[in-house]
Amino acid sequence: MDLGHWLRSLGLERYEAAFRENEIDDAVLPNLTAEDLKDLGVGIVGHRRKLTPSLLCALSLSQKRRQPRQNPPPSQLSQQPADAAGERRYLTVMFCDLVD
């Protein structure tokens, strides 16, 4: 994630140098708190309010990019045991004992 571009998109490019000096990257960014933003020099409450929801958005985007797809290739699907890809289903059983 390009930190400078992200800050410019929020209109907060003045904090780019502080973020870079403190080695804030996409791994650290989602864990920043309001206190951390104050330490970085983001003293204006409105700017912190802009950054906080954007941090959450950046977190979700960075997690989506980092997670590889979990679907195995079709060649591996046939090699898995049948119970490895199990599923739950409802089962109804009826027993009738008819006499005469």
Provide tags for this entry.
100 residues; mainly alpha; DNA polymerase, domain 1; 5 helices; 45% helix
Task: Give a written overview of the molecule.
- This protein is an all-alpha fold and 100 residues long.
- The chain has a domain at 3-66: Orthogonal Bundle (DNA polymerase, domain 1).
- The protein is 45% helix and 0% strand.
- It has helices spanning 3-9, 16-21, 34-39, 45-66, 74-77.
- The longest helix has 22 residues, at 45-66.
- The radius of gyration is 26 Å and the shape is rod-shaped.
Condensed summary:
With 100 residues, the protein is mostly helical. The chain is 45% helix and 0% strand.
Give the mean pLDDT.
75
What coarse outline follows from CA principal-axis ratios? rod-shaped
Coarse structural class: mainly alpha
CATH topology annotation of the domain at 3-66: DNA polymerase, domain 1
Distance between the termini: 78 Å
Total of helices: 5
CATH classification, class level of the domain at 3-66: Mainly Alpha
Helical percentage? 40-55%
CATH superfamily of the domain at 3-66: Transcription Factor, Ets-1
Which series of helices and strands comes N to C? Answer: HHHHH
Q: What is the percentage of strand-forming residues?
A: under 5%
CATH architecture of the domain at 3-66, by name, is Orthogonal Bundle
According to DSSP, the number of beta strands is 0
Rg on CA atoms, Å: 26 Å
Largest sheet: none
- Flag low-confidence runs: none
